[in-house]
Amino acid sequence: MVQKVLSMSQQLLIGEALKYAAHNVADREAFIDGDHRLTYGELLTRSLHLAGWLQAQGIGVDDKVGCLLKNGLPFVELYFGVSLSGGVFVPVNFRLGSKEMEYILNQSDVKILFVEEEFIDSVRSIMQNLSQVKIIVPIKAENLEFEINTIPYEAIFSTTTEYKSVNLTDDDAHAIIYTSGTTGKPKGAVLTHKNFYMNTMNKLYHSQPRKGSRQLIIPPLFHVAALSSLLQNCLIEGTIIIHREFQPDVVLKTVQYEKIETMFMVPAMWNFLFQVPNLSDYDLSSMTNCSLGGAICPIEIKKRILQVFKNATILEAFGQTEMSPSTTYLAGEDALRKTESVGKPSINVRVRIVDNEMNDVPVGEVGEIVYQGPTTMKEYYKNEEATEEAFKGGWFHSGDLVRMDEEGYIYVVDRKKDMIISGGENIYPKELEDVLYSHPDILEAAVVGIPDPTWGETVKAYIVLKSGKQMTEEQVIQFCQSSIASYKKPRAIEFMESLPRNAAGKVLKMVLRTGAYQ
């Protein structure tokens, strides 16, 4: 037993980080959600109870536990509870359509699903198709009847459980985060305990937060960037205030009354914040770090951040889910001096910029950025082909085309896979194009991202109709919304006689983006 405990202490494990924090600062507030405040001691007690209950339901090493939850204390408790149980956490994007949720829950082998009350109907509509889910845990709803076992969340804490320590290593899977691809269904990036731990250590190195600092979390926790903050909070023994949704005026009030020191938002959210009337009336002097990412931030927004938060510096992060997620950082005065850059490689992340033959390209030339290091995902879950493709040549291939200047700063030029980032959400044109091609009146379709002053990018679809057919822009948008999540639908439609193509027949999306075809 002594050897087992010693072995556990030598691993970089998420659950152990919570134990350390609870031992050191048991009475300190760890997470605050509205009127509910949870100390580290209370969080550990509830997480261990939840872990014991999960174990009693058959959850062990590598068993999957999913959730469709908005930000809140149940999400936090479940995150740590699953980790302590030995299971693998699968947070699902609640903005997806029910069929998209169905695919992820089945592909990831989720056995127990925790569900927010407002998503119960979506789950019910696909319940008969969920092949492995054995237990549903609604967070607040009572007396719900499903075809399978159901237990309300709080009822779990009235049960008698016995937690059993699990012999994990930091190379074991910790979470599966799904990221859509351009060639089919979403892929589940398997991230290990070490992946999360090292990404957090990297961020702490670059951001240098105060021990015990107070952070505000606003973006959805199902995103890996927000999710990684839960571990960070334990390591600095800080306090996180959680917002369920983004309300700019509430954000400002929270900063003032909770003395927030750092918060992360995508550029669009920062922009909305500055539209709040009487912005100057709020006391924002506690803020020391304004973190942003998810899209390249316009210099005007950066300047505004520094004007409004006079005691803060800017920290920009760039990366992707498969890298846990941050790979480069741009901080301090570089935020304005190198405003179009995504910064320099993070500590503990090895970076190369290569051509198609894996040769390093000269400084200033464009190539694909590839990565190695302890934050690199383990694999794509049950997708050996995609995993092998991603790790060709022994490096993880990002799909991002970048260049590096003489000082070592990296600039994103384009995305090999044409991903669109709108308001911090990843949107993949191929997925939307497949939907458009399924309409009987549409002959061809191409989807691109176009600049948007609010969201960074927005979705535009170019449509070629079949001979004799007619559609309106609104009809196209409504058709898309019936098949995919609303945030992925096109915001602009342009009908064309034909799509611009090169000699090989490939659609010239760069031409569409620039409007050079006109």
From TrEMBL:
GO terms for molecular function: ligase activity. Keywords: Ligase. It comes from the Bacteria. The keyword Ligase applies. Pfam families: AMP-binding (PF00501), AMP-binding_C (PF13193). The keyword Ligase applies. PROSITE patterns: AMP_BINDING. Residues 431-506 form the AMP-binding enzyme C-terminal domain. InterPro entries: AMP-bd_C, AMP-bd_C_sf, AMP-binding_CS, AMP-dep_synth/lig_dom, ANL_N_sf, ATP-dep_AMP-bd_enzyme. Residues 21-381 form the AMP-dependent synthetase/ligase domain. This is Long-chain fatty acid--CoA ligase. It comes from Solibacillus faecavium.
